[in-house]
UniProtKB/TrEMBL annotation:
One of its GO terms (biological process) is plant-type hypersensitive response. This is Uncharacterized protein. Residues 2-160 form the NB-ARC domain. The keyword Cytoplasm applies. It comes from Davidia involucrata (Dove tree). Confers resistance to late blight (Phytophthora infestans) races carrying the avirulence gene Avr1. Resistance proteins guard the plant against pathogens that contain an appropriate avirulence protein via an indirect interaction with this avirulence protein. That triggers a defense system including the hypersensitive response, which restricts the pathogen growth. Belongs to the disease resistance NB-LRR family. Residues 470-490, 693-722 are annotated as: Disordered. Pfam families: LRR_14, NB-ARC, WHD_DRP. It is found in: Cytoplasm. Residues 366-688 form the Disease resistance R13L4/SHOC-2-like LRR domain. Residues 693-702 have a biased composition (Basic and acidic residues).
Length: 722
């Protein structure tokens, strides 16, 4: 019952994080520690405040006041939140005894079985955190030659086998990685993406033979092999991971927007810049240079990161090419100027101490990108912002999401070369002048306001591709009389994303100007959208969006509850975008009988029904519906009885049920769907979980009796003993 620190020790690349992650994500562990688990990358140069905020973000809702607290107060707040609960905290990659001493005050010994898992490269740090001789650190060992060869084969050939003519060379390559898993998987990526010829494998074997992986510095040379053999168009993409803080989990949508703005992605054929960038990322993942952190429901990568040794490789290679300048832990010293250093760099990334650094008024005549990744929110006085347009005149990328502005920073209107901008603050208007930035491709605005009025004439911004706002934005079209035909210059042919807009924005004058829109989120009083006046509604305008693949309909009726403004009905299926693949509904309070209209959508693959999207005790789908649906997610609802079979969902692959606390049983017909691979039941009615287990057991017994190969969906329950 005592608080225990469990340490995992080993050199970089040996698998400490992988082992800790296996434990952290185990369903039994998730259940035992419920909502009191937090994972924190501490790293070599850590920020105590960022670690505390990271823990708080996992165990409670962060508030604006928390960002303003001192480190000591935050530590006390962490301790207060953990005091009455059993908790599991992972502190990954702790480098020094001091780091542990700085953090341990936040972890109470509340005698209820709480645990801290600490990973480190240094045994003395692990022993310092837990000096108990009965609980020594777990030292990871190197792989044996046989284990190394087994791992290399799995990574290169997946489920296949190695050709006999390559086996001896393969064993030689694996042996010279000296049992270091990271080196093995990176070399595997090099072998995987080239022709599997004896000449190529001999070349790799000779290169690996010249290094000894037991030495971290020489191990870096092994990792550099893969970088050196990257195609030219992927080298800049890989080095760009170095601009992010170590162990930073990177949203892929943001990474792709940045790559495009930086000019790393070139147009070839009909494929879009974003799709080409995603292919580049997949290539880096296949080469084992980039780790997938999370995936979306459709299998595409949602977030990613790089191993800290590969992050070090990015920094090393970037330094040789003056690829970027990294600022962290900056202390202003009058006799020391960093301005001269920036003369040779194209990118500036600030990881901490944003205000002291900007207050020093740095200047970079050749800097094209100014990026802030500090976790702490910084309130920047207006006088410290005005110098940026003069000091960094050629900026293409400006990501100052870590800086809080009380009003939209109009000074940035002078940066005429901007392609990408991300800002944060308390403002309700995107000013008209921003439309003068005609090179802008991506606008990201995170505001404390619920709504954002877009005064900018985005129809004149012909390069604009993505408009991301957390507040519901109000779009305005130009006067209708200015639109003549498809050749009208006031048509956003490049616009692909409008993340969150009000229903009132969905007029013909607006949506007719977005013919290539791929993603659209609508949040607000959705009755306005579907209200039928004179035989038509604003929803009808969505049917003309031929390229729209993703649509979100979120019924937000603040300050009134959404149940007071529920949707009376859904539009007919042919009024939805014709090529819609992914649909999300929330708080719409529809009746299940209206689901038949969604079942007729010919290309729908993912359907997410979040909080009370539908309401009613019984759902009986119609035969022949949902012809291409692969993923079905049901959120909180009062559904009690559900019938389903292969006639209703012929291609279903994944079913997720969350907080369906009144559902009595899982439809047995789902087991007749041959394509169904996985079923997740999260906090559902225990009787529903019991029915799923009984159906699975009966099916397995029948298959054994008939000597059939066991098949059926994988069942995942949360909590595990549901």
């Amino acid at each position: 019952e005592e608080l225990q620190v469990i340490s995992v020790v080993g050199m970089g690349g040996l698998g400490k994080t992988t082992l800790a992650r296996k434990v952290f994500t185990d369903p039994r562990i998730e259940y035992e520690f419920c909502n009191n688990r937090a994972w924190n990358y501490v790293s070599q140069e850590y920020n105590r405040k960022e670690v505390f905020l990271g823990i708080l973000s996992r165990v409670t809702q962060l508030t604006d006041d928390m960002y303003k607290m001192s480190e000591e107060r935050l530590g006390e707040d962490v301790r207060r939140h953990l005091q009455s609960h059993r908790y599991l905290i992972v502190l990954d990659d702790v480098w020094t005894k001091r780091a542990w001493d700085d953090l341990k005050m936040a972890f109470p010994n509340n005698n209820n079985g709480s645990r801290i898992v600490l990973t480190s490269r240094h045994t003395d740090v692990a022993v310092h955190a837990n000096p108990d001789p009965d609980s020594p650190p777990h030292h990871l060992r190197f792989l044996t030659d046989d284990e190394s060869w087994e791992l290399l084969q799995k990574k290169v050939f997946r489920k296949g086998s190695c050709p006999s003519e390559l086996e001896e060379l393969g064993k030689q390559i694996a042996k010279k990685c000296y049992g270091l898993p990271l080196a093995i998987v990176v070399i595997a990526g090099l072998l995987l993406n080239k022709d599997k010829t004896r000449d190529w494998w001999e070349k790799v074997a000779q290169s690996v033979n010249s290094y000894v992986a037991m030495n971290p510095e020489q191990c870096m040379d092994i990792l550099a092999l893969s970088y050196n053999h990257l195609p030219y168009h992927l080298k800049a993409c890989f080095l760009y991971f170095g601009v992010f803080p170590e162990d930073f989990e990177i949203p892929v949508w943001k990474l792709i927007r940045l790559w495009v703005a930086e000019g790393f992605v070139q147009v070839t054929g009909d494929i879009s810049l974003e799709d080409r960038a995603e292919e580049n990322l997949e290539d880096l993942v296949d080469m084992n240079l980039v780790l997938v952190a999370t995936r979306r429901s459709n299998g595409r990568i949602k977030t990613c990161r790089v191993h800290d040794m590969l992050h070090d490789l990015c920094l090393k290679e970037a330094a040789e090419d003056n690829f970027f300048q990294q600022i962290k832990g900056f202390v202003q010293i009058p006799s020391l100027s960093l301005t001269a250093n920036l003369d040779y760099y194209r990118r500036l990334c600030i990881h901490s101490n944003v205000l002291p650094y900007i207050s020093s008024k740095p200047s970079g005549p050749h800097v094209r990108s100014f990026l802030c990744f500090a976790l702490e929110e910084t309130n920047l006085p207006r006088e410290h912002l005005s110098f940026i347009p003069q000091a960094f005149k050629l900026l293409r990328v400006l990501d100052i999401r870590a800086i809080n502005f009380c009003g939209f920073p109009t000074e940035i209107m002078q940066l005429v070369h901007l392609r990408y901008i991300a800002v944060f603050g308390d403002f309700k208007v995107l000013p008209a002048k921003i439309s003068d930035l005609w090179n802008l491709q991506t606008i990201i605005v995170h505001t404390k306001s619920r709504n954002l009025d877009i005064r900018a004439d985005i129809w004149k911004m012909l390069q604009l591709r993505h408009l991301h706002t957390n507040g519901s934005n109000q779009l305005h079209g130009p006067p209708a009389k200015t639109r003549k035909n498809n050749e009208d210059p006031l048509v956003g042919k490049n616009l692909q994303t409008i993340s969150t807009t009000l229903p009132e924005s969905c007029t013909e004058n607006v949506l007719a100007r977005t013919p290539n829109l791929k993603k659209l989120g609508i949040r607000g009083k959705l009755v306005t959208l579907v209200d039928n006046k004179g035989g038509s509604s604003m929803f009808d305008n969505l049917s003309k969006l031929d390229r729209l693949a993703t649509l979100k309909l979120l019924n937000d009726t603040y300050p009134h509850p959404p149940s007071e403004a529920k949707l009376p009905d859904l539009p007919q299926w042919y009024k939805f975008p014709p090529h819609l693949k992914k649909l999300t509904l929330s708080d719409t309070f529809l009746n299940w009988e209206h689901m038949s209209k969604l079942g007729m959508l010919p290309n729908l693959e993912v359907l997410k029904l979040k909080e009370y999207a539908f309401r009613g005790q019984r759902w009986e789908p119609l035969d022949g519906g949902f012809p291409l649906l692969k993923i079905l997610k049901l959120g909180r609802t009062d559904l009690e009885h559900w019938e389903a079979s292969g006639n209703h969902f012929p291609r279903l692959q994944c079913v997720v049920l969350e907080h369906c606390v009144k559902l009595q049983a899982i439809p047995s017909g789902l087991w007749d769907i041959s394509s169904l691979k996985i079923m997740k039941l999260h906090c559902t009615n225990p009787s529903a979980a019991k029915s799923a287990r009984q159906i699975e057991k009966q099916r397995q017994e029948k298959q054994q009796q008939q000597s059939m190969v066991s098949s059926g969906p994988k069942l995942i329950f949360y909590p595990p003993d549901l």
